[in-house]
């Protein structure tokens, strides 16, 4: 009965609390919803990391039905509750997952968490908003501001989440593609590459970034070109031009892209052979690496 669950989840015996918390995940959804107030109480007051993680798993499974737990989950992320360090860190991640599973009702709390001092809170909140997807469209501007962060993890999560917001984030991203900061422009171009929408503005922004003066932006553009339905000859032109770049990271982006499309390599063979004689040893090495994919038929060019 619900009374028995209450007694076990709120009792003094730690082992019984742990067992009960784990078991709540397998009970019928109507009973889970009836127990939600006590699960919220555990989120607010439980000091044992194992109990908390078990409760978080149940609340995540409940999804939108656990909307009343939003405030407690957000507070859980802001606070250092019980358990060792790895348990506390994992609790933040699991709380963020639970908020993502709740969806739209959790968006405003997650947006507030983006302003927390703790790096982990900002990163996990950004991740959760991305998992919610287009329903979190109003967070696009907040996530774009995170692209200016010094913390790489926060920037990466924000960039990935902006891509998951999809078309809802497109206008904000296109505006930010002109940002003066190279790391911001690179993150924006990565995000644009994740949005599966046929929009000429998106295509132009990515292709314009192929000429950016900053290598990290160019490399991001090469990776994002994959999302554009370009004709094979245009794609080959971009890859060969990129393979001539003097920055290794930019060339590696092209190498990785070409290796994903071995069926498009044949028309590039003659140009790759010419690059073997390039004045830059790095360019020649990457050309040789790709020619290796042609097998024995490339031996003559490499011997020459």
Task: Describe the fold and architecture.
The protein is mainly alpha-helical. Helix content is 68%, strand content 0%. It contains 19 helices and no strands. It has helices at 2-10, 14-23, 29-45, 49-62, 70-78, 85-102, 107-113, 119-132, 140-146, 152-165, 170-176, 182-194, 200-209, 215-224, 232-243, 248-259, 269-275, 281-291, 299-303. Helix 17 runs antiparallel to helix 18. The longest helix has 18 residues, at 85-102. The protein is elongated and about 80 Å long. The termini are far apart. The relative contact order is 0.05. The mean pLDDT is 92.
In short:
By secondary structure, the protein is mostly helical.
Q: Top keywords for this entry?
A:
304 residues
- Low-confidence regions: none
* Rg from Cα: 25 Å
Helix content: 55-70%
Helix and strand sequence: HHHHHHHHHHHHHHHHHHH
Structural category: mainly alpha
Beta-strand residue percentage = under 5%
Topology overview:
Blueprint: H1 2-10, H2 14-23, H3 29-45, H4 49-62, H5 70-78, H6 85-102, H7 107-113, H8 119-132, H9 140-146, H10 152-165, H11 170-176, H12 182-194, H13 200-209, H14 215-224, H15 232-243, H16 248-259, H17 269-275, H18 281-291, H19 299-303
């Amino acid at each position: 009965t619900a009374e028995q669950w209450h007694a076990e989840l709120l009792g003094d015996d730690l082992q019984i609390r742990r067992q009960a918390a784990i078991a709540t995940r397998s009970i019928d959804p109507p009973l889970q919803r009836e127990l939600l107030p006590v699960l919220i109480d555990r989120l607010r007051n439980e000091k044992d990391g194992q109990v908390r993680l078990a409760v978080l798993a149940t609340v995540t499974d409940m999804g939108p039905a656990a909307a009343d737990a939003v405030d407690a989950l957000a507070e859980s992320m802001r606070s250092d509750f019980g358990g060792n360090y790895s348990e506390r860190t994992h609790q933040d991640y699991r709380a963020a997952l639970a908020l993502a599973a709740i969806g739209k009702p959790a968006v405003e709390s997650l947006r507030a968490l983006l302003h927390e001092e703790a790096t982990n809170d900002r990163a996990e909140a950004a991740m959760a908003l991305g998992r919610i997807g287009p329903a979190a469209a109003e967070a696009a501007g907040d996530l774009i501001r995170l692209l200016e962060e010094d913390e790489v993890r926060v920037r990466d999560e924000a960039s990935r989440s902006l891509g998951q917001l999809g078309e809802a984030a497109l206008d904000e991203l296109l505006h930010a593609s002109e940002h003066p900061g190279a790391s911001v422009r690179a993150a924006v171009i990565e995000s644009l590459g994740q949005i599966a929408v046929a929009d000429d503005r998106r295509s132009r922004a990515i292709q314009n970034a192929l000429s950016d003066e900053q290598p990290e932006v160019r490399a991001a553009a090469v990776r994002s070109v994959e999302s554009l339905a370009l004709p094979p000859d245009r794609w080959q032109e971009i890859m060969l031009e990129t393979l001539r770049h003097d920055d290794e990271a930019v060339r590696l982006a092209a190498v990785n892209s070409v290796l994903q499309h071995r069926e498009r390599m044949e028309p590039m063979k003659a140009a790759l052979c010419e690059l073997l004689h390039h004045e830059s040893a790095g360019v020649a090495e990457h050309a040789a690496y790709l020619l290796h994919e042609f097998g024995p038929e490339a031996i003559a060019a490499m011997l020459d």
